Amino acid sequence: MVYDFSPSRAGEHARNFLQGWKGKLVCDDFGGYKASFELGVTEIGCLAHARRKFFELHATNKSKLAEQALRYIQLLYENEREVRDLEPDLRRRIRQEKAVPVMDMLHAWMIAQRDLVPAGSAISRALDYSLKLWAALSCYLNDGAVPIDNNWAENQIRPWALGRTNWLFTGSLRSGKRAVAIMSLIQSARLNGHDPYAYLKDVLTRLPTQRANEIDQLLSHQWMPTYLAKDELG
Length: 234
Description:
Elements: H1 11-18, E1 24-27, H2 34-38, E2 42-45, H3 47-61, H4 64-83, H5 88-114, H6 122-132, H7 134-138, H8 151-162, H9 173-191, H10 196-206, H11 226-233
Parallel strand pairs: 1-2
C-alpha cells in the first residue's frame, strides 16, 4: 500500500505518481485522471460512485426513479457477492452470464428515463453521470480481476480522510511527504497481518545495523520479527 502527498488536486500530480504505468485504474470521474487515460491508462468506472448519486437523491426526497436505479444496481452487487471468492476467469464468465443482462436493462432504462426528465434536474444529473461513464462502468464485466468499484481503496484512506481537517496544514511539502511515507508503512503492515506498532518498533531497532543489500527484508511483506529471523538464521 502506497500513499502520495501533493500540494493540490491538479492532474499533473496523478500523472507524476503513475509515471509510465499503463494499467487499469478504478476511479470516479475526477478530472485529474483524464490526461492519464489519454496516455494509455485504462479507465475503470466505480459503480459505487454512480450508485451514490441515486442513493443521495432517494434519501433526500424519496425519488421513485432513483429507487428503481438502486434496485438494478443492487442486483449487480448481489452477483458480486456470489463471485467474490472465485478465480478471475470463472468470475468473468458468471458476470457475463448474470450481470451483463442486468447492465443492459439498466442502460436501456437510463436512456429512456433521461428523455423524460427535465434537463438540469437532480435525477438528470444522476443519470448523466452514469451514462457519460457507461463504457468505463461496464469494463469490470469483461475482466474477472477488476472490481466493481474502488470501495476497498477508499476504505484504506478513510482513517486519513477522517483526520483531514486536523491535518489541513502539514507545515511544508516535505512534512507531507514524510506523513504519507509513515501512512504507507502502517497500512502495508496491517494489510500483511502485522501489528503496526510491533512492526515499526522492530524495524526502527534493526534499521541502523541492517545490511544495505538486505534492507528489503524489512518491508512488511517480507518482514519477520527479530526472534523469528534469528531462528531462521540459526
